[in-house]
């Protein structure tokens, strides 16, 4: 038996959200006229933009339902009525927040705040999730000497969902693209995607944010660069001739123009939720966990069978293992378990490693054939579940035929009421 030891404690859950796509930066005319034009346009598209930002390009309706089951909102009696407050109140409250990062008030921010408050049950759930994730974020932000309020970036990036995926390929709490994740030390391959690991992805995000701040010397610009990349921010600075967010605003991609206001709105909404009558949300799935480190090659199903832990629970606690397998070998990997099961795992490790080893670990021909089949069909797998990204020209009937399932099944798995589908969205194939 190889050496295993305890490392850290955290709790994991799910809520739906994935990051939005990034538009190309367009050439601008004069700063003043374009500034007014963009704000007018943003006001018109604000409702649809906020819907996409908060529920943000959901890749699977089935995943949403599974995620919401983690939270009990039955006791929440908030009626989603927004109390109209003067601008001076919003401005004063933002100024009262104990933050280093400037939280200026602009009329567009008011619209984002109201969209958060209008979804009172979702906001209540975010605040409850924050009780578990923010301490982890705070520890890492403190280690890197960064402002604590950067934790709200994870709120607008993923709604604190470690399994969040965007249709552009970003993933995890902090929505790293594969190349950026690898650049900051995250392992991303066929078996492991550490963008889903809450601790490792948070450390990578801190390193990235620290680098962006060193480049721009301004947190608002660094936050904008986190969304659209430092290159786009530098181009906007060059075109505007200035180095503050609201001056370069007209020259940024549309998604990024909304990014800082959404960040400020999230900070306001989560800090003043109670003042707006948003009620707390009870957790159905809140368990203390311990994390072990092991070099052993291991399948989560082996742990599930021997320790009688539901496989869905193990997947929630270990979201980085996209095919339920800890690769093992010379590199150490973490295994997160309910606290009351960690000693059982240590005591029964040999039994766990031997259990169904040929089927799950040693002989993986069936899995390889499944991967090949998924590749031919255009599908991909996350935690043992197959998904398919809809392409132009696809029909629900054609996709059903491709995967040898019925249209009725596809609609049930994805909560679809009609046969209408949209390119770029993702379907779940199976329960």
What order do the helices and strands come in, and which of them pair?
Elements: E1 5-6, H1 31-55, H2 61-68, E2 71-72, H3 87-96, H4 107-118, H5 120-143, H6 151-158, H7 178-183, H8 198-216, H9 219-228, H10 230-240, H11 245-248, H12 254-271, E3 282-283, E4 289-294, E5 298-299, H13 300-307, H14 311-317, E6 325-326, E7 333-338, H15 342-347, H16 349-354, H17 357-362, H18 365-377, E8 379-382, E9 385-389, H19 396-402, H20 407-414, E10 426-429
Antiparallel strand pairs: 1-4, 2-3, 4-7, 5-6, 8-9, 9-10
Helix pairs in contact: 1-4, 4-12, 5-8, 6-12, 8-9, 9-10, 9-12
What separation lies between the terminal Cα atoms? Answer: 37 Å
* Strand proportion: 5-15%
Rg, nearest Å: 23 Å
Question: What is the helix tally?
Answer: 20
Largest β-sheet summary: 3 strands, antiparallel
Characteristics:
431 residues, mainly alpha, 3-stranded antiparallel β-sheet, 8% strand, disordered N terminus
Describe the model.
It is a single chain. By secondary structure, this protein is mostly helical. The chain is 50% helix and 8% strand. The chain has 20 helices and 10 strands. The protein has helices at 31-55, 61-68, 87-96, 107-118, 120-143, 151-158, 178-183, 198-216, 219-228, 230-240, 245-248, 254-271, 300-307, 311-317, 342-347, 349-354, 357-362, 365-377, 396-402, 407-414, and strands at 5-6, 71-72, 282-283, 289-294, 298-299, 325-326, 333-338, 379-382, 385-389, 426-429. The strands form 4 sheets. Strands 1-4-7 form a 3-stranded antiparallel beta sheet, with no helix packed on it. The protein has a 3-stranded antiparallel beta sheet with strand order 8-9-10. Strand 8 (379-382) and strand 9 (385-389) form a beta hairpin. The longest helix has 25 residues, at 31-55. The two termini are 37 Å apart. Mean pLDDT is 79; it is low at 1-74.
């Amino acid at each position: 038996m190889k050496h295993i030891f305890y490392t850290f404690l955290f709790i994991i859950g799910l809520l739906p959200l994935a990051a939005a796509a990034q538009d190309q930066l367009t050439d601008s005319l004069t700063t003043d006229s374009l500034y007014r034009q963009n704000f007018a346009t943003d006001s018109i598209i604000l409702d649809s933009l906020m819907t996409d930002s908060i529920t943000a390009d959901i890749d699977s309706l089935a995943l949403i339902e599974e995620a919401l089951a983690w939270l009990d909102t039955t006791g929440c009696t908030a009626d989603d009525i927004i109390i109209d407050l003067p601008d001076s109140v919003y401005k004063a409250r933002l100024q009262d927040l104990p933050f280093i990062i400037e939280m200026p008030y602009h009329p567009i921010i008011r619209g984002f705040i109201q969209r958060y408050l209008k979804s009172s049950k979702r906001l209540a759930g975010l605040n409850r999730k924050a009780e578990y994730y923010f301490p982890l974020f705070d520890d890492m932000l403190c280690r890197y000497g960064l402002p604590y309020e950067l934790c709200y970036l994870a709120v607008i990036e993923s709604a604190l969902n470690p399994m969040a995926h965007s249709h552009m390929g970003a993933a995890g709490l902090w929505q790293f693209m594969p190349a950026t994740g690898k650049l900051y030390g995250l392992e991303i391959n066929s078996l492991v995607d550490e963008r889903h690991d809450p601790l490792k992805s948070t450390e990578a995000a801190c390193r990235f944010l620290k680098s962006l701040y060193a480049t721009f010397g301004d947190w608002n610009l660094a936050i904008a660069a986190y969304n659209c990349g430092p290159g786009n921010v530098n181009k906007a600075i060059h075109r505007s001739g200035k180095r503050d967010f609201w001056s370069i605003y007209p020259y940024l991609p549309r998604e990024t123009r909304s990014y800082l206001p959404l960040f400020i709105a999230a900070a306001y909404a989560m800090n003043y939720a109670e003042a707006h009558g948003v009620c707390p949300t009870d957790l159905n799935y809140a368990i203390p966990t311990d994390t072990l480190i092991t070099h052993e090659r291991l399948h989560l199903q082996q742990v599930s069978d021997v320790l009688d832990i539901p496989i869905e629970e193990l997947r929630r606690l270990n979201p980085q293992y996209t095919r339920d397998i800890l690769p093992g070998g010379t590199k150490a990997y973490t295994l997160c378990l309910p606290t009351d099961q960690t000693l059982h795992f240590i005591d029964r490790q040999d039994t766990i490693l031997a259990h169904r080893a040929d089927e799950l670990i040693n002989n993986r021909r069936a899995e390889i054939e499944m991967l090949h089949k998924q590749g031919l069909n255009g599908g991909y797998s996350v935690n043992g579940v197959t998904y398919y990204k809809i392409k132009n020209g696809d029909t629900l009937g054609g996709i059903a035929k491709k995967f040898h399932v019925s249209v009725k099944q596809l609609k049930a798995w994805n909560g679809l009421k009609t046969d209408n589908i949209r390119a770029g969205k993702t379907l779940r194939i199976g329960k």
